[in-house]
Amino acid sequence: MPRCARSRPGPICYGRGGTESTVTDANLVLGRINPDNFLGGTVALDVDGARAGVKRLAERVERLCGRRD
User: Fold this and answer.
1) Is the pTM of the predicted complex or chain greater than 0.85?
2) pLDDT digit string (tens) for 38-69?
3) Which long-range contacts (CB under 8 A, 24 or more apart) does 9-18 make?
4) In Å, what is the CA distance from 20 to each residue of 11, 44, 69?
5) Which InterPro entries match (predicted)?
6) How many domains is the chain partitioned into structurally?
7) Domain assignment of residue 28, given as a range
8) Is the dihedral of CA 43, 47, 48, 52 positive or negative?
């Protein structure tokens, strides 16, 4: 998992092989990052990949901590 800025492979949404959700992935899923204009539209983001990664993380947390509704 990326632990700091410039980590490789980076967020899932960058499409560079990242498999662990990052704050960037979460912000994309939450709509805080515009996927159509990230870095002025020069970088395409994988929104579906980020969603899948955040979902996997949420499921893992639920398994470890128990679901709290």
Assistant:
1) no
2) 999 998 999 999 999 999 999 999 999 976 66
3) 11/50, 12/46, 12/49, 12/50, 12/52, 12/53, 13/45, 13/46, 13/47, 13/49, 13/50, 14/43, 14/45, 14/46, 15/44, 15/45, 15/46, 15/49, 18/53
4) 7, 18, 25
5) Hydantoinase_A, Oxoprolinase-like
6) 1
7) 12-61
8) positive
